[in-house]
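Pipeline run #58 for the internal structure catalog. This entry was flagged by the ingest filter as a single-chain record with no existing model, so it goes straight to prediction. Upstream metadata was stripped on purpose; only the residue string is passed forward. Reviewer on rotation: M.T. Logging verbosity set to normal.
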Amino acid sequence: MTTKRQRTAAAVTTLALALGASGIAQAAVGGVQQPVHYTMQTSLRDLQHPGDYPGSLSLVVYPSGIVNGFYLPQDGQPHDVVGGLDGHNIWLDIGTIEMMDFGVINSLHLTGTLKDGVLDTTAAVPGPDTVVFDSTTTVHMND
């Protein structure tokens, strides 16, 4: 019985040391990850028609993959943005947007990538046209 207790104690001690060592290693490389803030100049455009809808997008990407922020069209009101990031794959939902070619779009849904601070997405809109929403420039910083 004593040998079993000694093995259990040794196993618990080994596990504690291993967990402690991983915590030290994590602290050595920067500790807990912080959210990343992005501010982007954006363009919403239909690939079948000339012109675009410029604006700006401010996003906060959390280590968990949760994304939130706001979109400000050049000629409109700010809209809340929610979404998620998995690796480089991103999805965003932007509140109601009014576009001349499409009328009012409730909850514009975007899917695409966010890689090296550059957003490249396609918008889900009614009809056969392809609408893209991407960034032309970006600034990002850690919190």
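catalog note: Residues 1-29 have pLDDT under 50 and may be disordered.
catalog note: The radius of gyration is 23 Å.
status: ready for reviewer M.T.
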